[in-house]
């Protein structure tokens, strides 16, 4: 199988999450544990003998969620609760829910009520004073509490060596993603905006060891080819996620390609490497969280996001920035006025798109993307 076939394989996996999850369970024979975004302790889940599965919402027909969450709650979380209530998540052994915002806290409690099977729900808190020792100690205590919860759930013992082995697999995945991101930016005819997003998304639903091997196969295949002579415009996208995915087809139709991203379903997953001078695996996980920059879900008085986006523009020689603003996402919306002013002051063209996964009328968004692309090509 050529690397081009592998690209199509991962695109299919990203496009059809439910189908991919079932295949993963059959192939591995392991329990599946759902991970509500963002920053769940996937390594501990993996060490327990289960497969972490990303739960990033979708576009269900809302019929039950209004009993649990307000209509102005984040669409990702509303979709997660709807899927829980209609039995879609019955395939899962449990769900882990971090609590970075008020809506996540509501989702944590409502998932305990909404599942027909009374699905096991495990909450996860992080020390937001992550630069201070006391905040790091709290996060470590939460990791260890999750470990004990999973030991009871999986009827197993999770040793530090098992967590270390899982952490190494995830570090290999994160490293492979960083390399893929850089190589893909040199092959924007082959790795379109849509394909890039689906390849990344596929990693949420597969065993990371298998996925990383496939991703490395794609990266090595791209490296063996000459760089594409792409004559369109290179963009940086920022936000939670680039969905509905039809929007990415609009990018591709109008000659826009994602060269790099600052997204929760994107580089925020992998861009912070672990420290090499730390031995304890829980400290490694905690300090990786502490070292993250420009993430709207983390306490950061310096507000480095505008700086970081400009660094991405320079790194990938991008022509513009596109903001994918998830409706009703408070952390993202709080950041926007700050980095908007910084990007405008740097004279970088920027397009703001407000979306959610349940958006159905996309014609207006298409027109705005088309108009923005025209201004870039005429500049």
Set down the secondary structure blueprint.
Elements: H1 3-15, H2 17-28, E1 32-35, H3 42-47, E2 51-54, H4 75-85, E3 94-98, H5 102-114, E4 120-124, H6 133-154, H7 160-184, H8 193-202, H9 208-223, E5 233-239, H10 246-253, E6 256-263, H11 281-291, H12 305-315, E7 320-326, H13 330-345, E8 350-355, H14 363-378
Parallel strand pairs: 1-2, 1-3, 3-4, 5-6, 5-7, 7-8
Structure description:
The protein is 50% helix and 12% strand. The protein has helices spanning 3-15, 17-28, 42-47, 75-85, 102-114, 133-154, 160-184, 193-202, 208-223, 246-253, 281-291, 305-315, 330-345, 363-378, and strands at residues 32-35, 51-54, 94-98, 120-124, 233-239, 256-263, 320-326, 350-355. It has a 4-stranded parallel beta sheet with strand order 2-1-3-4, with helices on both faces. α7 (160-184) packs parallel to α9.
């Amino acid at each position: 199988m050529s690397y081009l076939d592998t690209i199509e394989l991962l695109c299919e996996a990203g496009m059809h999450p439910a189908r991919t999850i079932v295949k993963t369970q059959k192939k591995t024979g392991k329990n599946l544990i759902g991970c509500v975004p963002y920053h769940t302790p996937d390594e501990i889940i993996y060490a327990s003998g289960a497969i972490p599965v990303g739960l990033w919402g979708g576009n269900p027909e809302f019929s039950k969620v209004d009993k649990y969450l307000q209509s102005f709650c984040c669409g990702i979380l509303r979709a997660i609760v709807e899927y829980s209530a209609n039995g879609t998540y019955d395939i899962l052994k449990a769900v882990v829910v971090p609590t970075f915002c008020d809506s996540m806290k509501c989702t944590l409690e409502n998932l305990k009520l909404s599942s027909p099977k009374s699905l096991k729900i495990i909450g996860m808190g992080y020390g937001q004073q992550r630069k201070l020792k006391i905040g790091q100690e709290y996060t470590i205590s939460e990791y260890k509490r999750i470990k004990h919860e999973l030991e009871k759930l999986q009827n197993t013992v999770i040793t530090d060596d098992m967590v270390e082995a899982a952490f190494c697999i995830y570090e290999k995945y994160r490293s492979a993603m960083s390399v893929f991101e850089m190589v893909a930016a040199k092959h924007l005819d082959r790795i379109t905006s849509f394909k890039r997003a689906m390849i990344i998304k596929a990693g949420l639903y597969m065993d990371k060891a298998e996925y990383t091997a496939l991703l490395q196969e794609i990266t090595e295949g791209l490296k063996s080819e000459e760089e594409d002579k792409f004559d369109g415009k290179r963009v940086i996208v920022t936000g939670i996620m680039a969905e509905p995915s039809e929007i990415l087809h609009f990018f591709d139709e109008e000659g826009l390609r994602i060269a790099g991203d600052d997204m929760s379903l994107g580089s925020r997953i992998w861009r912070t490497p672990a420290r090499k001078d730390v031995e304890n695996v829980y400290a490694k996980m905690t300090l990786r969280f502490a070292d993250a920059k420009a993430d709207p879900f983390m306490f950061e008085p310096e507000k480095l996001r505008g700086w970081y986006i400009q660094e991405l523009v320079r790194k990938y020689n991008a022509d513009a920035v596109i903001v994918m603003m998830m409706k009703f996402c408070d952390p993202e919306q709080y950041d926007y006025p700050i980095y908007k002013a910084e990007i405008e002051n740097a004279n970088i063209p920027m397009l703001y798109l407000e979306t959610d996964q349940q958006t159905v009328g996309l014609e207006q968004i298409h027109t705005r993307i088309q108009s923005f692309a025209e201004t870039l090509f005429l500049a």
